[in-house]
Amino acid sequence: MSAPIVFFDIAGPDLGKLNAFYAEVFDWPIAPHPMFPEQSSSVGPVPVISPLPGALRQEQPDHDPQFAKVIYLGVEDITASLAKVGAAGGTVHQPRFEVPGVVVLGMFKDPAGNVMGLVEIKDGKPIVP
Known about the structure:
The chain has 2 helices and 7 strands. By secondary structure, it is α+β, with helices and mostly antiparallel strands. The protein has one domain (15-53, 67-126): 2,3-Dihydroxybiphenyl 1,2-Dioxygenase, domain 1, CATH 3.10.180.10. It is globular, with a radius of gyration of 15 Å. The termini are far apart.
């Protein structure tokens, strides 16, 4: 059996800002971590698409490491979600764009500068333009 992805971790210098951002923009349930409430939050459960597809990419050696690993979140409207990102303290890195025959994407940075992606979905499945 392939090794499953069992956890995700998003870090930044201001835990309160990260908590507020992901709760507000993506409606994630967030609570203080029971063992480390000053340093960590518990997130979830959050829905996932199963089985979870992924990619391994080759990049140039001088490529910004911030883009070396990206979590993509499924949303019904990328443009509306990117507006919420901006209102909640994040920034739009790349507005909505289509990869014909593959997927509809957008990218943002959260308040800590973590790069994240958005995939436009309908009925729980990625939209293929």
